[in-house]
Amino acid sequence: MFYTFLRGLVRFLLFIFNGKAQYHHTERIPDKSENYILVAPHRMVLDPVYLAFATRPKQFIFMAKKELFKNPFFAWWIKKCGAFPVDRENPGREVIQYPVKMLKKSDKSLIMFPTGSRHSSELKGGVTIIAKMAKVRIVPAVYQGPLSMKGIFKREKVQLNFGEPIDISDIKKANAEGIEEVNRRLESAFAQLDKEIDPNYKYIAE
């Protein structure tokens, strides 16, 4: 209930500051009864928020770097929004075990950014491992819009596009070969989704 309230509150504030975001192909998003991993390139600090808006009433958990939990109030806020801390330098088993448990035993799905950072384009293997262990599909998405809060306040247009769910049940193991194949599918999906919004779009990190 509180998650829904916070999502609605933030959605209202962003509407006031930036106007209505445009969401493309939301019909490709699975029914709310299905758990899945929603995956996108990380381009802006608010892209997980916009992803959560577009897929409501589905609720999500998402990884956040541990540094964001230093401030007690902010830590409380983002935990209520579904965040759990990750040590990027020394990630433990919990980074995999917790989301797998939630995907299997709760009604919450997972938002992941496979590059891990807004300043990287290299896809990592966590998505493949978690998807295989939890036996869920992967839904690709892309964000195009302002890359800073300054752009949000200038009311620069925000757009998101969603792809068809990717079934990786044919991937036998989440080994190097399996991860490489899943990453290839994701990169292809991201490129196609960006092209559907704007054929000339090119992401340049700020």
UniProtKB/TrEMBL annotation:
Boundaries of every Phospholipid/glycerol acyltransferase domain copy: 36-146
InterPro entries, per the entry: Plipid/glycerol_acylTrfase
UniProt xrefs under Pfam families: Acyltransferase (PF01553)
An example molecular function term from Gene Ontology annotations: acyltransferase activity
Source taxon at top rank: Bacteria
Keywords noted in UniProt: Acyltransferase, Transferase
Protein name per its UniProtKB record: 1-acyl-sn-glycerol-3-phosphate acyltransferase
Lineage: Bacteria, Bacillati, Bacillota, Bacilli, Lactobacillales
